[in-house]
Structure formats: structure tokens, C-alpha cells
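agent> Task received from the user: take the single chain below, predict its 3D structure, and emit C-alpha cells. No templates, no multimer pairing.
agent> Plan: (1) validate residues, (2) run structure prediction, (3) serialize to C-alpha cells, (4) report one or two observations.
agent> Step 1 OK, no nonstandard residues flagged.
tool_call: predict_structure(input=
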Amino acid sequence: MRGREVLNPQRRRRVPPQFSWVDHRLVRDGHVEGRSAEALALYLFLVTVSDAEGLSWYSEAALCHRLGWPAERLVQARGELCRAALVAYRKPLYQVLDLAPEATMAGGDRRTPRGEAVAFGDILQGLLAPTGATRGGRP
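)
tool_result: status=success, residues=139
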């Protein structure tokens, strides 16, 4: 096991009163896989500036200015995040969404938290089953 020595104690990260966080499930559950660098940059920006409910009111012009992007790049990145169910958008409001369980993620490869592939039929069954019920009694 690796040691937990802080490399630079004078620069130890502290949680400020207006803190935000990036959920480690973003990486662990594969939400970042297949996303463009632009989509990930926009996601990081929105996570950083959103309130406790994930809401942000940055305008398109302000986002483009802060990120150094033309409007088309912002629209493309935002669309990618919305299709991936990571962000909801209704002008002028953004909401960073709670990370969905893997079986309900929009688009892309479906895998369990251990990285095992999930059959398409199991995904459909999970979507069609009443809440809490699963195929074959498996969680």
C-alpha cells in the first residue's frame, strides 16, 4: 500500500465555504469515457461554479469568454453533456445532474461498476421493470 504522505504541506487543499466537488464516480463508472475534451472542460467549469443543487446561470457569452470558445463549440459541448445525462440545460439555466447509475447512462458502452459488460436485454429489462425489480432477482 502506498504511503499517504502529503507532498507539499504548505499547499494542502482546504475546503472553502463555497466548495464544490467532482464525484469520483465520474471516472470510476465510466462517465468520462468517450467524452470530448471540450465537454469535459465545460463539465468541470459547471461543477466548479454551480450551487449546492448543481445550478448555474452563466450566459452563453460569459461561458464562451471564460473558456475562450466560439459559440458553436459551446453548443456542441453542451449537447454532448446533455445527451450523456450529465447536464440539463434550459436557457439560461444549467443543472449539473446527479450521476446516474451505470445501467441508465445515456449512450455508450454499458458496464457494471467492476467493468463487466451488461447485456442490452438486461438494460431494457431494467428500464421496463417496476422500480426495485430486476431480471432474475439480480441487483
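agent> Step 4: summary for the user.
Residues 132-139 have pLDDT under 50 and may be disordered.
agent> Done.
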